[in-house]
Amino acid sequence: MHHATLAQAEGGRALRATLPAGAQIGTTFSCSYLTPWRPLSGLDARALRRADALLNRLFVEPALGLGYPSADLPVLRWLDRYIRPGDEARLPFAFDFLGVQNYTREVVRFSPYVPLAWATLVGAKQRGVPFTQMGWEVYPESLYQMLRQFAAYPNAPRLIVTENGAAFPDPAPQQGRLTDHARQAFLQACIGQVLRAKREGVTVDGYFAWSFTDNFEWAEGYEPRFGLVGVDFETQQRTVKDSGRWYQQFLASNAGEALFSGADTHGATTG
């Protein structure tokens, strides 16, 4: 953890020294909005703070000069054995933007069986809520909440949504068309949450959907389908999905242009 955090800042300094003046340098963080399993439980509330320190704050706060969130996750004090003189001064870097990678929220509950963190995540299937092929809850508001959380740091730079999307099973293409209502609705809702954050004063300067095409998804392989463009992995045939066609039209519209231009974007996600 410590060496990755140092590398993040050292990479920023190396780029700043090498690139022309005005180059925009940023880093990006995977994050999930967290809520407690039992809202009135003090044990779950403390478990949530520990989980938030590990999942959402661990790398961003050192970059902003705030150090590691060890007050809320005491196990991070073990990092002291790896921190050499001068390291703490090298952890921060003035990034021009922070990237937000968000797909879902997580529900946290206290668990005495998970050492050190004393917390576990309650999956969407267990909670009986809609979920994607990855088992992640369909919860677009998570993006809004994480934009608010990152923007709340006093010295936070502007934000860019660098990853956001959903994997759903796709039907076979019919006459060159691939209908994916769930993915399109998810993207529309998430872009609406970006707009909501912007209207409340959060500086969000960009949004990138994950992903352009169906892809190889880590340990899950080719099964989860995230793409705006469907891929037949046997024939390599590409088919633009309905979500991709909607996204293309949105980006080409006045509403899409206005979303990140500062203009009024009322109704921008209804196209």
Overall average residue pLDDT: 94
Low-confidence stretches: 264-271
Percent range for helical residues? 25-40%
- Please count the helical segments: 9
Give the topology string: H per helix, E per strand: HEHHHEEHHEHEEEHH
Topology:
Layout: H1 2-18, E1 26-36, H2 42-57, H3 60-63, H4 87-90, E2 97-110, E3 119-122, H5 124-127, H6 141-151, E4 158-163, H7 181-199, E5 204-207, E6 229-231, E7 238-240, H8 242-252, H9 254-259
Parallel strand pairs: 1-2, 2-4, 4-5
Antiparallel strand pairs: 2-3, 6-7
Helix pairs in contact: 6-7, 7-8
List keywords for this structure.
disordered C terminus, 34% helix, 271 residues, alpha/beta, two-stranded antiparallel ribbon
